[in-house]
Amino acid sequence: MRLPTTLSVILPVLIFTAAILGAILKGNAAYDAFKRLLDRLKLLRCRKLYGNHRDFALVYSELFLSYRIVPEELRRRPFVKPHITDTFSLHRMACVCEIRAASYITGSLTNLGRRVLNPESDVEWKGSATQSAILLGTTSNRWSMQLLDLAGWIRYDKIRRRFVSRRSGRCLHDLHSQSVDYGAIVRIFPRPDEKVMWTMCGGTREHGTSGCAWYLSHRLDELCQEIRQKNQPFVCIVIVKQENDTLAKAIFLAQTEADLESHAISDCPGTDDISSCPHDCKQRIDELYSATEKKAKAP
Question: What are φ and ψ of residue 177, in 5° steps?
Fold first, then answer.
């Protein structure tokens, strides 16, 4: 990541100052003016990431129980808890990683002066042609899969369990392991007039998805430094270490197909043991995190 620009340093200070002044002047005639200034500064801070889009649908992947594996007498209440004899029914099911992701995204967008519409499942969401959206999950969310098709540069390989370049088929990250997950933040504009923006936070496993959402929510200044144009698609590959969302780091961000291809790597073996990888996966991961820690400690 490049060093913070002057604007990325000044804007948070201005936002904090405007918030303090607004609180002091609350109830006075000048309060509304400071409130408008604060809202405008918030929108300015993340304009490269969210542009002029103010309302966002939050689309999670709805899951269904396969009745082929559930006895008929248990189908009405097929869920149980350990050490409890009662059975339970659920109207809807969602992945726990997407619940975490939704909380990250909702808090961040609200703080940035955006509005999050009521969460909808990928089955019921009908606003795809008119609503900007944050899509949670990868293969479990049908809109995420459509986003990857529309993006044209990237796809998810279910056999190799990795995001790959659509053009060459080369992998964009190493294979996940017991201690490392990967994910992708992908932004597209499905309409030619760019009035609708979709952003996917999807992982190869649980923490890849929630880690992408955490990074999108808590590291937006870093993302904005890398984004050259606010109305341009991008792909950001994220690594999440030790099953901890707060340890999510960006490996790279690409805004063109050629840039994405330049980051592609050769295939790693089909194993969860990264220590046996001939492409030094473990070394690359350690270098990425050690470089980030040195940068954080630098004055």
Answer: -135, -170
Q: What angle do CA 224, 38, 200 make, to 5 degrees?
A: 35
**Which secondary-structure segment (H or E) carries 202?**
strand 198-203
Residue 268 has pLDDT above 60, yes or no: no
Token pair 């959206």 is found at: 133
DSSP 74-137: GSSS-EE-TT---EE--S-B--HHHHHHHHHHHHHHHHTT-EEPPPEETTT---TTT-EEEEE-
Residue 194 three-state SS: coil
How many angstroms separate the CA atoms of 144 and 187, rounded? 11
**pTM of this prediction?**
0.76
Distance, CA of 42 to CA of 36 (rounded, Å): 10
d(CA 162, CA 149) in angstroms, rounded, equals 15
pLDDT of residue 192: 86
Whether the pLDDT of residue 1 is over 60: the answer is: no
CB contact set of 144 (below 8 Å; sequence gap of 6+): 61, 122, 135, 136, 137, 138, 200, 202
Residue 271 or residue 89, greater confidence: 89
- Domain extent listing, the chain: 7-45, 51-268+275-297
What the block records as the tokens of 221 is: 């200044």
Given a cut of 50, whether residue 273 has pLDDT beyond it is no
Q: Which residues, at least 6 apart from 103, have a Cβ–Cβ distance to it below 8 Å?
A: none
Nearest-angstrom CA–CA distance, 148 and 187: 9
Q: Tokens standing for 110?
A: 């609200």
The three-state DSSP-derived secondary structure of 220-268 is HHHHHHHCCCCCCCEEEEEEEECCCHHHEEEEEEECCHHHHHHCCECCC
